[in-house]
Write a structure and sequence with these properties.
The complex is a heterodimer.
Chain A (H helix, E strand, L loop, with lengths): L2 H7 L8 H6 L4 H31 L9 H37 L7 H20 L30 H29 L12 H33 L9 E2 L2 E2 L7 H34 L7 H14 L15 H29 L8 H24 L1 H7 L3 H31 L5 H28 L16 H34 L57 H18 L5 H4 L1
Antiparallel strand pairs in A: 1-2
Helix pairs in contact in A: 3-4, 3-5, 3-15, 4-6, 4-7, 4-8, 4-13, 5-6, 6-7, 7-8, 7-9, 8-10, 8-11, 8-13, 9-10, 10-11, 11-13, 11-14, 13-14, 14-15
Chain B lengths: L4 H4 L13 H40 L18 H26 L2 H31 L8 H32 L4 H29 L3 H10 L4
The chains are: A mainly alpha, B mainly alpha.
Chain lengths: 598, 228
């Protein structure tokens, strides 16, 4: 018996107590909200840390407590939190949890209890991470890449407790991500409703599905490197630690290979870029199609591009290591694969633009964020082509050009999608619209502000301004103009940072005061907009699961009155809609209405 | 609380839950299919994990300070314990496969005997591994003595950790057998458990082959992988 028939044959029993409903909840929607709120909370900490760092760079010495160690700690925690604990958790744990079952027409994830555990493990990893702020010596300041030997050598901030807590937190996070990932992939494979073939799934589901597979296969590399580094740190092994003299004393280690760590780290680290990017690709495809009232251009091509990008992302990792030294043929290989991955990526960008072409573009807040994403991803992607080439990467490596590149491509671009998607799906989650005016103000400050921050950084990089320096005074090659630019960037960063209060205010204010949205305010086609209740009740669909007859992108269908066809619309219903439109047209034409036409 | 089909996947231990009705039989089949898919995905993750460890193992083995584990003075000069442990794990897998097969045919006593035997043999494997560790420490081969030994502890420890995870799944099956749950329910627990155990046996065979290989073999593998 198929999943849908089984699901329909069972009664839905909603949890009654507050605890089982909202705390130890096994409902994917509640877990999604828990994931999202935790990720946003920890993301705010990372945002504050970036503000503190920018104060030091733009206005050196303005913060009394900001010494070199504090700066490196802020930098490390900012990077790690943003990449892992905010973006990965939000895209997979937040959007994945909320949207996969709804979009494929399931009642829930296939293993709700494991799903619940996944969130609590994630929360535990966040608590361990935050605990490092209060540990003796503070959090690790090794940089988010945690490269040995310096990450576990005395003299690096947090080398005592900070690094241990970081590694433990990462290991717990990976367990959480694996539990969640098993659920997402199995749900997509096993719990789709009637008629929901793989090639009828919205691109959001495809993006999250493939990103989850990447996460399942790539996170073990981080786990392996974390465990081995923990052995080096706690048991005195020499997996990564070479013979080294630290603070005048020879250490007990010898013969370890720091480069081995780099390979492992980037074998995880590069797919991680796509673990964040692929869900963003999927979500933005749905935003663009819905708000441009246009079929997504080249749906199958988009799916295959997601799969190709996912596959290729495992064979490009060493482009992060050109300056670490490698066989020139390896450099050639990784530069080539890096350029090849640009092909399916560019294909997606073309398809988004072609979807917009002659579309009925509604400049709603989600659409503004989606458009901003295309532009930002393009800018970040193009600078990636520079850095993917060995010969250009070597002089630009470890400069602000790199900082600008990766912030544009995997910081700002995905965050723009996060914002757009929250504005888009908020009405389904809460039953109310977010305030449009506040959303517009939030968008323009964020969009223009991030460009004010990151565009000048490309120039600073060309000047040769190195990244990861605590202080830039007294270097002859850094001119005064660069310091002025740094002050400007800091002001822009603070404005953008503070403006996120608008978003938070809107998020919570709209819960009570937002305009009631109804079930399908954007007149969208995918299943989540067709639930009998908004917000969807436990079990999502009432007694009967939806029956899918088409893909999710039938917008501006010619010959019918409404400009969208939900996925549940049958051919007979479409014929009826066409007939009624024809009848309306003929009723209003001059021939059939001679008086009116006279 | 009555459960949705998805939720039932978590509460596989409901005894006497009326699973013999046609609806529940097909629900059980769906659940079994889904759990098998999930276990196979989990095994892909496990494969990725061990593959990465093994690549680092081979890469690290090419450094000059690498100790030949099976050399005359190496910690594994005598591999007999390792092979006894391997035998225990093979027999554990065979027993669980037996349990899986007899559970399909509904032989309750045989299921109990074979499942119990499988668990005891897997437990014996864990105890044997810990005994081996203890002996290595006793002979002065601590974890930080040489990277080859560090890897030995790391790889065997990680594998043992996964076996213990398998024993948790085994314990749930035992609980159902003990409480005389319907045979279909028991089988639905044993099937994915056996897939996981067999795969861990396969991983162990790869590990033990590698750990007992000579440096020349490592050099050949490293050359084939471009790590030399």
């Amino acid at each position: 018996m198929a999943y849908a028939e089984l699901a329909e044959s069972e009664e839905i029993h909603e949890p009654k107590s507050f605890i089982t409903r909202y705390i130890w909840s096994q409902d994917h929607k509640v877990i999604a909200v828990q994931y999202s709120l935790t990720a946003i909370f920890v993301g705010l900490i990372a945002l504050v840390l970036s503000g503190l760092m920018r104060m030091q760079i733009g206005f050196p010495g303005s913060l009394e407590f900001m010494d070199a160690s504090t700066y490196y700690q802020a930098m490390t925690m900012h990077g790690m939190i943003m990449v892992i604990y905010l973006l990965t958790a939000l895209f997979l744990g937040g959007f994945g949890n909320y949207l996969i079952p709804l979009m494929v027409g399931a009642r829930d994830m296939v293993f709700p209890y494991v799903n619940m555990l996944s969130y609590w493990f994630y929360l535990l990893s966040v608590i361990v991470l935050i605990a490092s702020f209060f540990a003796p010596g503070g959090p690790t300041g090794a940089g988010w890449t945690l490269y040995p030997p310096q990450a576990i050598t005395q003299g690096t901030p947090g080398a005592d407790w900070g690094i241990i807590l970081m590694l433990v937190s990462l290991a717990i996070f990976i367990v959480a991500a694996t539990m969640g990932g098993l659920n997402y992939v199995t749900t997509v494979l096993q719990a789709r409703t009637h008629g929901m073939t793989l090639f009828r799934m919205p691109l959001t589901v495809w993006g999250i599905f493939i990103a989850t597979i990447l996460a399942l296969l790539a996170f073990p590399a981080l786990f392996v490197s974390a465990v081995m580094m923990m052995f080096d740190r706690l048991l005195g092994t020499s997996f990564f630690m070479p013979a080294i003299i630290s603070l005048g004393q020879p250490l007990d280690h010898e013969g370890g290979s720091p480069i081995l760590f780099q390979h492992l780290f980037w074998f995880f680290g590069h797919p991680e870029v796509y673990i964040v990017a692929l869900p963003a690709f999927g979500l933005v495809s749905d935003l663009i199609s819905t708000h441009a009232r246009k079929n997504i251009f080249g749906y199958r091509m988009m799916v295959w591009a997601i799969i190709a990008i996912g596959g290729l992302s495992f064979v490009v990792w060493a482009h992060h290591m050109y300056v670490s030294g490698m066989n020139p043929y390896f450099g050639f290989f990784f530069a080539t694969t890096t350029l090849i991955i640009a092909v399916p990526t560019a294909l997606k960008v073309y398809n988004w633009v072609l979807t917009l072409w002659r579309g009925n573009i509604h400049l709603t807040v989600p659409m503004l964020f989606a458009l901003a994403f295309i532009l930002t991803f393009l800018v970040g992607g193009l600078t990636g082509l520079f850095l993917g080439n060995v010969i250009i990467d070597v002089p630009l490596s470890d400069t602000y050009f790199v900082v600008a590149h990766f912030h544009m491509v995997m910081g700002v671009a995905p965050i723009l999608v996060v914002f757009g998607s929250i504005y888009h799906w908020y009405p389904k989650i809460t039953g109310r619209m977010m305030n449009e005016t506040l959303g517009q103000i939030h968008f323009w400050i964020t969009f223009l502000g991030t460009y004010a921050i990151y565009f000048p950084m490309h120039y600073l990089g060309f000047l040769g301004m190195p990244r990861r320096y605590y202080a830039y005074e007294d270097y002859e090659f850094i001119p005064q103009s660069a310091h002025d630019l740094n002050a400007f960037i800091t002001v822009a960063a603070l404005v953008v940072g503070v403006s996120q209060v608008l978003f938070l205010f809107n998020l919570f204010w709209s819960l009570k005061h937002g305009k009631k949205s109804g079930g399908n305010p954007w007149r969208a086609n995918s299943l989540e907009w067709l639930t009998p209740d908004t917000p969807p009740a436990h079990g999502n669909w009432g007694a009967r699961l939806p029956v899918v007859h088409r893909w999710a992108y039938d917008y501006s269908v010619p010959g019918i009155e409404q400009d969208f066809l939900p996925q549940t619309c049958t051919e007979e219903e479409l014929t009826q809609l066409k007939l009624s439109r024809t009848a309306m047209d003929s009723a209003s034409s001059p021939e059939s209405n001679p008086e009116g036409g006279a | 609380m009555a459960l949705t089909p998805q939720m039932r996947t978590l509460d596989m231990g409901e005894p006497g839950g009326g699973w013999n009705s046609p609806d529940h039989a097909s629900e059980l089949q769906w659940r079994l299919r889904t759990t098998k898919v999930a276990v196979r995905i989990l095994l892909a993750v496990v494969t990725s994990l061990f593959m990465l460890f093994l690549v680092t193992y081979i890469g690290r083995s090419q450094f000059s300070d690498w100790l030949n584990l099976t050399g005359p003075l190496g910690p594994l000069a005598d591999t007999s314990i390792l092979w006894w442990n391997t035998l225990a794990l093979i027999l554990a897998s065979v027993s669980l496969q037996w349990a899986r097969m007899v559970s399909r045919k509904g032989h309750r006593t045989l299921v109990m005997v074979s499942t119990m035997t499988a668990g005891m043999l897997a437990g014996a494997f864990i105890v044997g591994q810990m005994f081996l560790w203890g002996r290595l420490v006793e002979y002065g081969f601590g974890v930080a003595i040489n990277p080859a030994i560090s890897f030995f502890y790391l790889l065997t420890g990680l594998h043992g950790f996964h076996i213990m995870g398998g024993l948790l799944a085994w314990a749930r099956s035992m609980e159902k057998i003990w409480h005389k749950s319907p045979m279909q329910v028991i089988n639905a627990g044993l099937e994915p458990c056996a897939i996981y155990w067999h795969y861990l046996l396969f991983i162990w065979l790869v590990l033990v082959s590698l750990l007992t290989s000579s440096p020349e073999t490592y050099a050949t593998i490293a050359a084939l992988c471009g790590l030399r």
